[in-house]
């Protein structure tokens, strides 16, 4: 009998997407192939402490805040400092801490493979403003926008408002480093913009203001490395004025359609743009690439890229992959195999350097 790999399933975290991550991780745990993997849930509580004993799902769902252990360089809960490392980490952390390079850097220090993209891609992909700038440098189409830092907003508010006004109305205000539509507002009147920006800056010191277009929301799932599998496009048919957090996870008024009902040539274009956007961001493992299709003109714009998309029962990523011939369990297996392959590649690289001289030893 083949020995199974232990999979450290990381979820929770300190970001506003803590609850979404719990639901994502439960679904992943339910679908990992038991013939190949042994799941070890590792819940990161809202205070940043890793809960690894008992039932971490229940503990985080009950809002438990474990006591940190005595070793200052470890985030593990007290009494668990000697916990063995898993063979591979499956990162199901949404938002800051898990999707911005922080956990990737820590796991690299532990010399353990982990699913998804590396530190650079995650850090850039998490920040919607940086992502847009990367895509613009590759000639990829993005919605007209203004990026603002909190420091600049406080220093020259009238200039910032003037720049935003040039985009016209309506506008969308978004914290640059949040997902699940948290903190996103649609602004229809210019006099409401200042307050909307103030609320966005409570989440992040970097905020995007985007031109509000009349669009259809098209999404594509990407899986792989240099030559990734790109799924059939899906469409989110939005019930409200945009796809809100409440609609995504609480009310469920919007619906999805896979494949999206768009012309074949547009399907081909979207899939090509998704692959280019993934590569431009140094993507690896998986991503959901979101597009806007302007109703009036038929123009396609890249909206954003999510390197750790939702994996709940209603999430678009696994649905689009399934419609493209890759069922949920196989997606998870491929992600772990990709993690092992990238780790092996990295391990083969030359890390050290010796000059052959004692110049660095001093006098």
UniProtKB/TrEMBL annotation:
<dbReference type="InterPro" id="IPR011761">
    <property type="entry name" value="ATP-grasp"/>
</dbReference>
<keyword id="KW-0460">Magnesium</keyword>
<keyword id="KW-0963">Cytoplasm</keyword>
<keyword id="KW-0961">Cell wall biogenesis/degradation</keyword>
<comment type="pathway">
    <text>Cell wall biogenesis; peptidoglycan biosynthesis.</text>
</comment>
<feature type="binding site">
    <location>
        <begin position="180"/>
        <end position="181"/>
    </location>
    <ligand>
        <name>ATP</name>
    </ligand>
</feature>
<dbReference type="InterPro" id="IPR016185">
    <property type="entry name" value="PreATP-grasp_dom_sf"/>
</dbReference>
<dbReference type="InterPro" id="IPR013815">
    <property type="entry name" value="ATP_grasp_subdomain_1"/>
</dbReference>
<feature type="binding site">
    <location>
        <position position="304"/>
    </location>
    <ligand>
        <name>Mg(2+) 2</name>
    </ligand>
</feature>
<feature type="binding site">
    <location>
        <position position="290"/>
    </location>
    <ligand>
        <name>Mg(2+) 1</name>
    </ligand>
</feature>
<comment type="similarity">
    <text>Belongs to the D-alanine--D-alanine ligase family.</text>
</comment>
<dbReference type="InterPro" id="IPR011095">
    <property type="entry name" value="Dala_Dala_lig_C"/>
</dbReference>
<dbReference type="Pfam" id="PF01820">
    <property type="entry name" value="Dala_Dala_lig_N"/>
</dbReference>
<keyword id="KW-0067">ATP-binding</keyword>
<dbReference type="GO" id="GO:0008360">
    <property type="term" value="P:regulation of cell shape"/>
</dbReference>
<keyword id="KW-0133">Cell shape</keyword>
<dbReference type="InterPro" id="IPR011127">
    <property type="entry name" value="Dala_Dala_lig_N"/>
</dbReference>
<comment type="function">
    <text>Cell wall formation.</text>
</comment>
<dbReference type="InterPro" id="IPR005905">
    <property type="entry name" value="D_ala_D_ala"/>
</dbReference>
<dbReference type="InterPro" id="IPR000291">
    <property type="entry name" value="D-Ala_lig_Van_CS"/>
</dbReference>
<dbReference type="Pfam" id="PF07478">
    <property type="entry name" value="Dala_Dala_lig_C"/>
</dbReference>
<dbReference type="GO" id="GO:0008716">
    <property type="term" value="F:D-alanine-D-alanine ligase activity"/>
</dbReference>
<dbReference type="GO" id="GO:0009252">
    <property type="term" value="P:peptidoglycan biosynthetic process"/>
</dbReference>
<feature type="active site">
    <location>
        <position position="17"/>
    </location>
</feature>
<feature type="domain" description="ATP-grasp">
    <location>
        <begin position="132"/>
        <end position="337"/>
    </location>
</feature>
<feature type="binding site">
    <location>
        <position position="306"/>
    </location>
    <ligand>
        <name>Mg(2+) 2</name>
    </ligand>
</feature>
<dbReference type="GO" id="GO:0046872">
    <property type="term" value="F:metal ion binding"/>
</dbReference>
<dbReference type="GO" id="GO:0071555">
    <property type="term" value="P:cell wall organization"/>
</dbReference>
<keyword id="KW-0547">Nucleotide-binding</keyword>
<feature type="active site">
    <location>
        <position position="180"/>
    </location>
</feature>
<feature type="binding site">
    <location>
        <position position="304"/>
    </location>
    <ligand>
        <name>Mg(2+) 1</name>
    </ligand>
</feature>
<feature type="binding site">
    <location>
        <begin position="210"/>
        <end position="217"/>
    </location>
    <ligand>
        <name>ATP</name>
    </ligand>
</feature>
<dbReference type="GO" id="GO:0005829">
    <property type="term" value="C:cytosol"/>
</dbReference>
<keyword id="KW-0436">Ligase</keyword>
<comment type="pathway">
    <text>Glycan biosynthesis.</text>
</comment>
<feature type="binding site">
    <location>
        <begin position="303"/>
        <end position="304"/>
    </location>
    <ligand>
        <name>ATP</name>
    </ligand>
</feature>
<keyword id="KW-0479">Metal-binding</keyword>
<feature type="binding site">
    <location>
        <begin position="172"/>
        <end position="174"/>
    </location>
    <ligand>
        <name>ATP</name>
    </ligand>
</feature>
<feature type="binding site">
    <location>
        <position position="128"/>
    </location>
    <ligand>
        <name>ATP</name>
    </ligand>
</feature>
<keyword id="KW-0573">Peptidoglycan synthesis</keyword>
<keyword id="KW-0464">Manganese</keyword>
<protein>
    <recommendedName>
        <fullName>D-alanine--D-alanine ligase</fullName>
        <ecNumber>6.3.2.4</ecNumber>
    </recommendedName>
</protein>
